[in-house]
Design a protein that fits this description.
- The structure is a homotetramer.
- With about 150 residues, chain A is of the alpha+beta class.
- Chain A contains three helices and nine strands; from the N terminus they run E-E-H-H-E-E-E-E-E-E-E-H.
- In chain A, the strands form two sheets. Chain A has a six-stranded antiparallel sheet with strand order 1-2-5-6-7-4. In chain A, strands 3-8-9 form a three-stranded antiparallel sheet.
- The longest helix of chain A has 20 residues.
- Chain A starts with a strand and ends with a helix.
- Chains B and D meet through helix 1 and strand 4 of B and helix 1 and strand 4 of D.
Chain lengths: ~150, ~150, ~150, ~150
């Protein structure tokens, strides 16, 4: 499913891309994807980014005790997302801090933009929920998706 | 919210009752409650049962290390549940084992049955996920909802 | 449940307030509320705002053919939200356009801020999904929550 | 994703099979898949069954006005489902009525059974929500998955 194509996107930014199929359970009573479910798509894309780009799955990293709770999300809904849509989500790393990462997401269906988002996540030890330094090998993988 | 009325229901069974408001996020594209969300209502009612009948909230019990994972659920959907419905859910304990509980749920909207379910849950230590004996004080509270 | 207290909040802004109980189904594997579920809390608060302040429930308005899809959300997660927390959410209307509304949410648990958000929603005819003018009576109710 | 292998399963029943990846958003506070999310997996498998076996996607059929609301589900949770598990779900049609279908699901992770379920769905016109006769071409596709 994850397609870590490494292709250069707009602005010279290397983008990780994945595709998420809109399921019946993602829909609301208006017959379009319910926006909290699209926020969940950000996490799905983040998980695919680990599998397809980082090289270690998020479940593995989570079991090893590292977590990336969100501290900020900005999301713009540009066009309704429908049942059965294959949503192409690109993820670019905008900034890598000592213990935080800034991501930008752009989602489209058949080339038409449907939502875009920015997210700031912090790196925490899942045992203590305290902020920890992003391990070097991970920093390198994040940076490799940022330029 | 929880209404532990202790009133006798049909068949002489004392029922715990609670009311759950159907939210936009519970709906599917057909404009009715999505059935996995109604299965979630069973857990909501179970939580209200602790707050309203057992006398200790489920969050407290969970934090103390006890969990009640489901091992079996049978659910019949009798009539569609709509947006804004106040779903009255009654919970009766059918059987209390050494480390399991059997519950029966009956849900209605304005007196009209909408779904009914039976559930078997086991009692586990959340640290080890191993089956443990239901503590006596809890057994008494469950039994008090069973006849 | 909804508490439309009409009390003046900080900065002289009249706030609508409601309380949302964190359910087991809102939690993630870290034992805290999963952030897309907190985004869902915005909608829950918006629904309570209709019931408690607008004077007509959202389900009624939705059935009459009016919808308020989100076009933009900014949310900051300030502190983890835990199982059993009673999250106090205040909603203030920041701006009322011809066919859009801007809302600000502030959420706290026992006085401690847990998240805050801004949301822009547009007013649409649910049949055509086209933007429509906010009805006057609704505009007045929104404005009454904005100063 | 869907793997309609047509291979004979146990008891000579031809099974449709698909694989569902357990996402972070499927987990509960115990770190395992929350059971209403596993009930949602039944619908996901049902959707994949249309794409992979029926030959017309469920979104298409839904847009054409046909729906399959559940009237009964029995589900047994045999073993916890964990983050990152690839859940293999097989779907066999047990019975095809005039306007109903009976399905059996068996789910496993790396060969270990994790849940099994039976489901009865009725065929309805999504406009009227009235029961309608299952179209012949669909009946044939369902029957082809039943023996």
């Amino acid at each position: 499913m994850p397609v870590g194509d490494g292709a250069s996107g707009q602005q010279g930014v290397a983008l990780f891309q994945t595709t998420i199929l809109v399921r019946f359970g993602d829909l609301d009573a208006a017959g379009i994807a319910y926006y909290p479910r699209l926020v969940n798509f950000l996490h799905v894309a983040f998980e695919d980014f680990f599998a397809g780009h980082v090289g270690k799955t998020y479940p593995q990293i989570f079991r090893e005790g590292l977590g990336f709770p969100s501290v900020k999300i900005e999301i713009e809904f540009l066009s309704p997302v429908h049942y059965g849509d294959h949503v192409n989500v690109s993820l670019a790393v905008e900034k890598v801090g000592r213990s935080s990462v800034h991501m930008r997401y752009e989602a489209s269906v058949l080339g038409k933009p449907v939502f875009k988002a920015r997210q700031v996540a912090v790196v925490v030890d899942m045992k203590t929920f305290k902020s920890v330094r992003l391990p070097n090998w991970l920093r390198e993988r994040f940076l490799a998706a940022s330029a």
